[in-house]
Amino acid sequence: MAVAWIGDRSVPVDDAARKAAELLAASLCPVFSLDTDVHGTRAALALARSAGAVCDQFDGAATAREAAQYTDRGGLFIAPGEVRRRADLVVIVGALPAHHDELIAEFASTVPDLTGKDAERRFFLVGDDAKTPGKAKAVRLACEGGLEAALGALRAQCAGRQVTHGVSHFDAFAEALAASRFPVFTFCGVFAGALALEMLQGLVGDLNRKQRASALHLPASPNGWGSTLVSTWTTGFPLRTGFARGHAEFDPWRFDEARMLAEGEADLHLVVAEDARQVPAAPKGVHMIALAKTAKPVAGAAVTIAIGVPGEDHDAVVYSSRLGTLAAMTAKASGELPPAAGILRRIGENLPERESLPC
Amino acid sequence: MLTRVAGGEIVDPVNGRLGTGDLWVEDETIVPPPTGRKPDLTLDAKGCVVMAGAIDIHSHIGGGNVNTARLLLPEHHKAHAPRPGATPLAQLGWTTFETGRLYAQMGFTTVVEPAMSPGAALHTHLELADIPIIDKATLAILGNDDFLLSMIRDNASAAMIEDYVSWTVASSRALGVKVINAGAAAAFKENVRSFSFDDEVPFYGTSSRKIVKTLQKAVTGLGVPHPLHVHCNNLGIPGAPDTAAETMAAAEGLPLHLAHLQFYSYGSEGKRGFSSAATRLAELVNTTPEITIDIGQVMFGQTVTISSDVLRQFTARGSANPRKSVIIDGDANGGGIVPFRYSNDFFGSLQWAIGLELFLLIEDPWRVFFTTDHPNGAPFTTYPEIFGLLMSRDARAKAMEAVSGRALKLTTLPALTREYTFEDIAVMTRAAPAKLLGLKDRGHLGPGALADVAVYRKGGDIAQMFRSAAFVLKNGELVVEDGAVKKMRWGRALRLKTTPDKAMVKRMEAYHQQRYGLSLDWFDFPDSAIQREQPFGEVSCRA
Ligand SMILES: [Zn+2]
């Protein structure tokens, strides 16, 4: 089975890794887009440091928004297990990606067990796009102007301020809130912008003056959040960190992979993806190195190396939105495809000037 | 490989070896002077002090809360990276890599992360595994977790509680157990805003005292070498000395360790209702032999407080500087991250002086441990300066000139003349921590000991001497020379050797299925998940 290609030509993995290293060494501005597990990220960061590259999450705008919530203002957050066991009021803020459906359905099919007998869980939805969880009943809080307007109005109304356009069903919410021992608001950076996230934390902060409340982070991309954590302990910064000047620099605007490619700054794009179909076409003049689960070369890629899917083809450590922390995954089958980490390290071994100290 | 550390002033109180001589190391171990063999490597230690590698028993170096602090404060690291040394938090040792490098350069070879949430043990161990050179260990946090509190409420047997503690320590790969504001995190979830030693935890009907006593008994019963590590209630509040005193009294003859006592030594006297209770608490420690404490010394400057005492951190949000914070309601303790700047105003000066009073008034260096509660009182990179203050009354006098005189008047510090000797330092930062943690292979320089050795060149400036070790050996390898890392290596995380009871594993499986809808596998991990060769070292329980 072919597992590595230079252009369309099938080659041994070592040749492909050497070619990738050559391209990296020749690149003036390499950018990495990651969709991988913890060990893939560790290896990618080490390679980026050696090659002076930028690391971002693949399609990482939403992940960057979620990180900005921490880097810019902080907030109140809760573990998912504690939501299941304690939240008697769950407020779903905006639409959520489908990979969170199962967890939300689980909240709908269970009741809190840490808040006394006969506890129930009630649901509210903020904005027009939030979906009703499973078979549960949910009351929608919405107003004209989208999610931000709804959150802004809701915060003002909760604080007892007059608003011209309040959210629908506010009285029902006020009543539920007053009766609640622990309300929790879910959020995700995919459909909530920076302003909405800020409004939400403002609301949660206000509520905590008198009662408890918190916010549940349901990451836009669990891999993206896992990589954010690894990048943070390795470099001191979340993703969108670059090593062009030898040390780590964080700049969420400058080191946005999509922007760097669109504006012609990057001349090399290394993509680590679970699925080859995710990999975008390389813009003109950009060399692409594609690491993905694939049986054929990625169209337009200068180098393609096949890798396994973390937790399926090989054991992995991934961020679990269900646990709210990192979890070890045992491979379902002993696949032949290698983890991204191993391939990234092999590329690094072929770089001319190897960093002597690991990062 | 045979190494001779030649002609240094050996300070090894455990073996009673004090004076000039050679120290011999073969491979990973300290050996008696061999006859008729030439060393492969000779390190010239003339004019140097030779001690065992230092051991830090309480420093927040890795895990979910530490990483959240990094995420919250990118500006601190950004300031650091291009211009080390010149900016606030510049010496924080913010990344895993820097943490290992900076500790090693000061001659520290083992560091304990004292607040691991058992549910996030994998994350903690992955971070620790990325800290180079030094060995690490963790304390698992219990005492706000539903399983334990329910067992106490339901009058579970002592044996069953021991089984649960043992399971937690084993599955989280911890070296010991810590309790942080026992019951308060659970109470805070029920909107309780202040919590003392005899207050009741809503829903569970138990008290902080009961939780501490239950865990102390279990830890002692299991033979965990490290006594229960207690972060008391009411941290930072004037009046906390009463809480600390109550907690010490509750030790009742069994070992108990109180963390960062400085933060509990605030009286409520004087015009500002803030005074020093260091004399009172030091006296209590001196007369309660089963108690050990560490200080949590405050030093001036920017830092960030990282604590699993979520109630305390929530209360402190208003003092955040810069003005941002994170509060986490976790599965058990959760935690809070609040950046803070200690200034030499009245309050900061008093905190600084109280820590030093405790250091100087507690007589037995075997029972007082050297910490800043990194980074809560100050970053660990301030240690050399603190050694200077402890060893030199002149250095203290000079430092006192730069702090609030009104604060100093409320303390005994100006009158204290004690100076720590090298022997005291070796006890406090080497021998005593090894004993407290049950690490028989280190903390001394006797034949058979692990060759973790720190060599410091003597000179006028004590701080400079401790900041950059002349030589450091880790497992016999020369890793630091002239204050700079020469050789990279990966240390291990030391874990307690304990086998969880099978019936308890079954119970935990049922509990996780029922309460979280997940199999126990989700909460456990194989050693191979760390992806390092031999990520763990094992430490035996007391017989
Ligand atoms: Zn601490």
Automatic annotation (TrEMBL), chain A:
Top-rank taxon, per record: Bacteria
Name by which UniProt lists this protein: Tungsten formylmethanofuran dehydrogenase
Organism in which the protein naturally occurs: Manganibacter manganicus
Lineage: Bacteria, Pseudomonadati, Pseudomonadota, Alphaproteobacteria, Hyphomicrobiales
From TrEMBL, chain B:
Organism of this sequence: Manganibacter manganicus
Pfam families: Amidohydro_3
Protein name: Formylmethanofuran dehydrogenase subunit A
A molecular function GO annotation: hydrolase activity, acting on carbon-nitrogen (but not peptide) bonds
NCBIfam families documented for this protein: one_C_dehyd_A
Domain Amidohydrolase intervals: 42-479
